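Task card 7
Instruction: Convert sequence to structure tokens.
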Amino acid sequence: MMMTRLLLAPLLVLTLAFPAAAEKLSLDAISAYLNGLKTAQASFTQLNDDGSISTGTIYIKRPGRVRFEYDPPEQALVLAGGGQVAIFDAKSNAPPEQYPLKRTPLNLILEANVDLARRNMVVGHSSDGKTTTVTAQDPENPEYGTIQLVFTGNPVELRQWVITDGTGTQTTVVLGALTRGGDFPPSLFNVTVESQKRGL
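Output:
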């Protein structure tokens, strides 16, 4: 399925420039960081289920909006906005596949008020001395899968995530340096506008 390949694929270890040592970040500190992340842009590298690697640019506008623009030759597009996730296939003239955002683990970091401790949705919280890893799921709907978030500290920064869907399929997204701030137009995350631009 297209959604599995693009958004929801295996964990491969990448060598990243992590600090030499860092204390384990608290859930409150991570929640505060995510809530303060209103808009951001970064390059990303995605490791897919078939072993291939995709690259592109991600645009985040919390709450509820994200855009994954994939580089050539793939040129696919994944949007989250208006409560929906839409996957556009550049090789198809068909309308995008759409799924409710709430049914994907990505919703856990895009919701308006992230409170990892209060919601009792964290099923893993560990540190290797360099990074802090938090694994979360919707406690009311664990069948939607999990999202594993990796952070560095001083200052806190989201470095990668691994989404595992309900079938166990994994997608790893490794972020470049986040450029925070700025204002992205609503059309960037509008499924209808994007469909019209593509004549779908």
